Amino acid sequence: MLKKVIIAGPVGSGKTTALQTLFGANLLSTSARYSEAQSAERKSTTTVAMDYGVIAWPDGKSRLHLYAIPGQERFQFMWEILGKNTDGLIVLIDAKRPRPTAAMHLYLDKILPLLNRAIGVVALNKLNAKERNALDLPPYLRHGDLRLRLTTTDTRDQEEVLALLRLLMAEMAHELYPATAP
Ligand SMILES: Nc1nc2c(ncn2[C@@H]2O[C@H](COP(=O)(O)OP(=O)(O)O)[C@@H](O)[C@H]2O)c(=O)[nH]1
Ligand SMILES: [Mg+2]
Asked: Which superkingdom (predicted)?
């Protein structure tokens, strides 16, 4: 089964890093020198179209096509193109930016209308181990009528990126077999 997964999040939230961690040199990446002098992010390149890679899931049945979409809003046309026929969504949020909870909801408001499905995982990153332990996150983030699995991650660590994919696969499986069945 082919599953299309979108990795989303604001500029600098670790989308490209997550895919580099998984795919290394096999990552198909489209980046350009960073031009927005006003940006608070210290990055020399930014994703302009997408980063893309495919992984065969260990169940032997699924292939996950992972697309990291650009963070900058001027590339919104790419969100619309890549948002079609989506099976799952991973949203990365830099927990060190001001008001990360507000940032999550604002970002979800922008992106969800462009996706045909809203099954997903929201992950806060850039926290150290101590900060992560101190955070007492509920398992789900409520966003309007939706609930999205909520967790922390470090996208530089391959095991952690795989753990995000496992959480997402579990959410997608719930969708196929709803927990409300008698
Ligand atoms: N501490 C920490 N830094 C991260 C993490 N993910 C990404 N970074 C750093 O954040 C910066 C921006 O990451 P990048 O993947 O380019 O962000 P993108 O704009 O979402 O593609 C880079 O310097 C990364 O090394 C993380 O989980 N923890
Ligand atoms: Mg990027």
From this structure: Bacteria
Beta 45-56 vs 63-68: how paired, if at all?
antiparallel
Ligand 1 pocket check for 9: Cβ under 6 Å = yes
- Closest ligand 1 atom to 9 CA: 20
Across the range 127-150, mean pLDDT stands at 95
Contacts (Cβ under 8 Å, ≥6 apart) of 145: none
Q: Which of 126, 115, 7 is nearest to 55 (CA)?
A: 7
For the record, the structure tokens of 121 come out as: 């995982």
Query: Whose CA is closest to atom 19 on ligand 1?
Result: 12
Ligand 1 neighbourhood includes 11 CB (under 6 angstroms): yes
Show Cβ contacts of residue 26 under 8 Å, excluding neighbours closer than 6 positions. Answer: 53
- C-beta of 97 in contact with ligand 1 (< 6 A): no
- Partners of residue 3 on adjacent β-strands: 64
37-63: pLDDT as tens digits: 445 455 666 766 678 899 998 888 899
Q: What structural domains and CATH numbers belong to the chain?
A: 2-175 (3.40.50.300)
**pLDDT at position 37, please?**
47
